[in-house]
């Protein structure tokens, strides 16, 4: 096979020890890259980052299906010579972190784009994305189309994301599973850590156990190491930022206000304060069950964002989705990155 920049990049981005297989019916194995590259199927992404978005199109004209529906050109197509079925591979110039540290807005944006592009292509929703046809193996017909890597905004130009605006949860396949897993686990963690304030090893084990339970509910569960990385990210963050002292201080502060969020003159002034400075306070209040509206009102940050009836204009990095997401429809902490 002749050398190609996209194929060389695919090789460079492979996990250190990817899953691989020659026949899917015999199951998956794991080995170093050199061994895995000799197999027909290989794991394209590692457990913490998504470098490639892969779609499985199961019909005889799959290789050019993107052109038929006006979708962006894939970087690589890997086609079964016998039946025409193909994997369409899109490369990202900036990989998406699937185990986010506090801010899941970019992950949610990527998940919405993936879901919309899957629908546009008519790709298989049951495809887990864990392994793909190996574009470096001679068994397949491999073609390179778009020479440049995509950013999410470029992909979104081809898509209608309106059906994903304002949803509290995305479809539970592809990156949508990562979003759901992160949301469920971190909401549980904010409250559960107060039950005895466990040491980190014990807390990490509890987070992994909880995340694994949520993962088992998916029709196509995420790989165990991906679940562990997500749980570890949440365990580390909550253990570092939530503490008994901070909780007591917050209880005392709220007790002085009569046990409920102030709506009047006691509101602290945050003029001139950067939004990121308020994040610890936001998370403390959120962990105690206060609503986004009450938290924003109490901290005096309501004016920073558009009201609920107005579309957010802050862009994908702020809104989570490019169009139609409003302040109170996504987790408040996601706007403080």
TrEMBL record:
UniProt xrefs under InterPro entries: Plasmid_replicase_bac, PriCT_1
Lineage summary: Bacteria, Pseudomonadati, Pseudomonadota, Gammaproteobacteria, Enterobacterales
Region (Disordered): 248-276
Segments forming domain Primase C-terminal: 167-240
Gene3D superfamilies linked to this entry: 1.10.340.50
Protein name: Rep protein
Species: Escherichia coli
Domain of life: Bacteria
Alphabetic keyword roster: Plasmid
């Amino acid at each position: 096979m002749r050398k190609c920049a996209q194929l060389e990049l695919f090789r460079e981005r492979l996990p250190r020890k990817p899953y691989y297989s020659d026949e899917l019916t015999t199951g998956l194995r794991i080995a170093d890259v050199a061994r895995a590259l000799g197999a027909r199927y290989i794991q394209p992404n590692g457990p913490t980052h998504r470098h490639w978005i892969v779609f499985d199109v199961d019909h005889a004209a799959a290789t050019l299906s993107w052109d038929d529906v006006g979708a962006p050109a894939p970087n690589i197509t890997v086609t079964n010579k016998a039946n025409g079925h193909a994997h369409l591979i899109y490369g990202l110039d900036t990989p998406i972190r699937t185990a986010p540290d506090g801010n899941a807005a970019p992950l949610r944006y990527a998940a919405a784009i993936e879901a919309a592009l899957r629908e546009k292509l008519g790709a298989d929703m049951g495809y887990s994305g864990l392994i793909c046809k190996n574009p470096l193996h001679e068994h397949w017909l491999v073609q390179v189309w778009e020479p440049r890597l995509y950013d999410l905004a470029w992909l979104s130009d081809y898509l209608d994301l309106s059906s994903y605006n304002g949803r509290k949860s995305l479809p539970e396949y592809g990156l949508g599973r990562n979003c759901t897993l992160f949301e469920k686990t971190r909401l549980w963690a904010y409250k559960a850590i107060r039950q005895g304030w466990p040491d980190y090893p014990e807390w990490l084990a509890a987070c992994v156990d909880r995340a694994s339970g949520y993962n088992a509910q998916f029709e196509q569960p995420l790989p165990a190491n991906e679940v562990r990385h997500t749980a570890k990210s949440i365990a580390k963050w909550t253990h570092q930022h939530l503490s008994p002292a901070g909780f007591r201080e917050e209880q005392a502060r709220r007790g002085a206000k009569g046990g409920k969020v102030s709506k009047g003159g006691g509101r602290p002034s945050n003029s001139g304060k950067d939004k990121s400075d308020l994040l610890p306070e936001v998370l403390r209040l959120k962990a105690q069950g206060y609503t986004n509206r009450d938290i924003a009102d109490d901290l005096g940050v309501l004016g920073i964002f558009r009201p609920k009836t107005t579309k957010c204009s802050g862009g994908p990095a702020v809104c989570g989705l490019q169009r139609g997401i409003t302040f109170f429809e996504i987790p408040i902490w996601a706007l403080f990155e």
